[in-house]
Amino acid sequence: MLSIKNLHAQVEDKEILKGINLEVKAGEVHAIMGPNGAGKSTLSSVIAGKEEYEVTAGEIELEGEDISELEADERAHKGVFMSFQYPVEIPGVSVTNFIKTAINESRKAQGKEEMPAKDMLKKIREKSELLEIDRKFLSRSLNEGFSGGEKKRNEIFQMAMLEPKLAILDETDSGLDIDALRIVANGVNKLKAKDNAVVVITHYQRLLDYIVPDYVHVLHDGKIVKTGDASLALKLEEQGYDWIKQEVEG
């Protein structure tokens, strides 16, 4: 699904990613953890195609196709979805209108007709029920006046509607109370399928109590320095990251 080889990236001439190698297969959930400044959010932004990051070496492939030269919207049309740590507010654009536009733009890019209105409504109803979203919520302006939990739930709702091949959740757990965390994680788990993949970028192990990863990768100083299963996240929770630094630098 996703193959990253020797990825180097910089922002404003400062190298942040220093040779990332990562393979994510369909049906898998990968967690990326690491201390502040390790490059976690940079990695997610580079995969999604945010333009302020410059890729200086390496390649990013989605289902065998090199996407490293594509714009962010082109990557989205190919099936890359990123849930932001801090979603922006868009006054005057309702959640429903936003999602309709996003779906139909993607369909257009793939040479398909717009989704018929009744199919769209049916899908909105199904996915909002799945994620326990109040229908009133859907008529509100996108993220305007939303609590942290509502913003994150809305991001997962967009993911449910767009059905991406690769979903990247960038610190989705930041600022969430336990109830919101559970609802967001529950949504992700329900959307997991054998033909899509999820990359969860997180600082804390607590999210991984709810979204159990197949693999946990530790990022340190722009490189993946350790990979393990879910037990690695528990060890990081108990012992912090100092032992990783000692292993790498020692």
TrEMBL record:
Keyword Coiled coil applies: no
Keyword terms of this UniProt record: ATP-binding, Nucleotide-binding
Domain ABC transporter: 2-246
Pfam families with a match to the protein in the record: ABC_tran
SUPFAM superfamilies according to UniProt: P-loop containing nucleoside triphosphate hydrolases
UniProt-listed PROSITE patterns: ABC_TRANSPORTER_2
SMART domains for the chain: AAA (SM00382)
Entry's family note: Belongs to the ABC transporter superfamily. Ycf16 family.
Name used for this protein in its record: Fe-S cluster assembly ATPase SufC
Record organism: Pseudofulvibacter geojedonensis
Gene: sufC
